[in-house]
Amino acid sequence: MSTLAFNRHGVWAIYQFEMARAIRTLFQSVVAPVISTSLYFIVFGAAIGSRMTQVDGVAYGAFIVPGLIMLSLFNQSISNASFGIYFPKFTGTIYELLSAPVSYLETVIAYVGAAATKSIALGLIILATAAMFVPLRIQHPLWMITFLVLTAATFSLFGFIVGIWAKSFEQLQFIPMLVITPLTFLGGAFYSIDMLPPMWRTVTLFNPVVYLISGFRWSFYETSDVSVEVSLAMTLGFFVICLVVVGWMFKTGYRLKS
């Protein structure tokens, strides 16, 4: 019976350790993304917003807020979770973790939970920062929190996968910089995909980030590029896929025991 009990002490210890690391790197974790977001508002909100006043009936400066939050959320979730599991691999302490009385599920909950917590906190800080630049309204706050938490958890799981897969710090940065960021910029973070020609709009619909940003923006302004039901289904689908991949990695010991 005891072997089936949830080891909350082990999960809490890993969670606290990861959260403490975020506090030690407070500038990198919080201040730098907030400064970057402020610069986005200055460049996109002031320069472009002066020429394109509204998108779907929403002031352009306010329209880009959900996209900016998602951009930071994606990158921070991935980097927090990937570094969290990669560092034990790099130092060799991963074997102590694997031999500890903590199950694979508990390990994932601790690392992913800590990464998601940091990302959600950052998202809320950026939201507060955005409110100082543009007037915001959140039509569906519960849906906003739902999309925020689900997206943070999903991309933290994805970051966990990247951390296990990576063999070097260069590979650790490869996915966020060369895959996620371009997909976010091409996924309607700063514009509505309805503004694109029909052919390019169809191509853009193959970008999974479109659905995440669209659903999150709908919770603010009730305007979206795709239906909120499709956005939620795609987000849940990505979450389940990441969960299955993480389970396979632990079951096979992929790049964990070699």
What would you note in describing this structure?
Helix content is 75%, strand content 2%. It has helices at 8-24, 26-48, 60-63, 65-91, 94-99, 104-131, 141-165, 169-185, 198-204, 208-221, 228-252, and strands at 54-55, 58-59. By secondary structure, the chain is an all-alpha fold. It has a two-stranded antiparallel ribbon with strand order 1-2. The radius of gyration is 19 Å and the shape is globular. The mean pLDDT is 87. It has one domain.
Concise synopsis of the structure shown:
The protein contains 11 helices and 2 strands; from the N terminus they run H-H-E-E-H-H-H-H-H-H-H-H-H.
Strand content: under 5%
Strand order of the largest sheet: 1-2
Order of helices and strands: HHEEHHHHHHHHH
| Number of self-contained structural domains | 1
How are the secondary structure elements laid out?
Layout: H1 8-24, H2 26-48, E1 54-55, E2 58-59, H3 60-63, H4 65-91, H5 94-99, H6 104-131, H7 141-165, H8 169-185, H9 198-204, H10 208-221, H11 228-252
Antiparallel strand pairs: 1-2
Helix pairs in contact: 1-6, 2-4, 2-6, 4-6, 4-7, 4-8, 4-10, 6-7, 7-10, 7-11, 10-11
Task: Sum up the structure in keywords.
single chain, 258 residues, mainly alpha, 11 helices
